[in-house]
Amino acid sequence: MFKLNINGDDKVVDVEPDTPLLWVLRDTLGMTGTKFGCGIAACGACTVHIDGQATRSCVMPVAALEGKRVTTIEALAGKELHPVQQAWIAHQVPQCGYCQSGMIMAVEAMLRQNPLPSDTDIDATMTNICRCGTYPRVRQAIHALIAGEGTKS
Ligand code: FES
Ligand code: FES
Fold first, then answer.
1. What is the per-residue pLDDT across 128-153, written as a single tens digit (0 to 9) for each?
2. Which residues line ligand 1 (CB under 6 A)?
3. Is the residue at 151 inside a domain?
4. Which of 43, 92, 95 to mutate to test the pocket of ligand 2 (most atoms within 8 A of CB)?
5. Percent of the chain whose pLDDT exceeds 90
6. Is 152 among the domain residues?
7. Residue 55 belongs to what domain range?
8. Of the candidates 55, 74, 93, which is a domain's last residue?
């Protein structure tokens, strides 16, 4: 049994210690906003925040998470969509959308830790894979957020 804090709520889950957080979220807790892509920390589809840090949940064993705060895409919006989500809509970033919850969680963490990233910083941080090739629009939306124009297309 493990006690986890997910989006501010304490949850007790009965799983093996090496169960990846991704499967606890999706299969045990029914929170399917976080996606499975590769399972080897390569694609970023499963990105969540752990104590505010963007983390690939497919390789994060649940046993390592007691006492830590997990935030998923389900909790990113408040009364309104998060500015990153608004920018994603304004700049029509998603295509199929499959990779985008992980992409958005990675961007949110990057901008919180570095509000004025250079293109080099963006390239180094945004290693999420998008099979639809939304990279130019991701870059465009990030630049709009940096400029404080995230919701304007
Ligand atoms: S599913 Fe976790 S990085 Fe690809
Ligand atoms: S929008 Fe389709 S994989 Fe990224």
1. 999 999 999 999 999 999 998 765 54
2. 36-39, 41-46, 56, 58
3. no
4. 95
5. 95
6. no
7. 2-74
8. 74
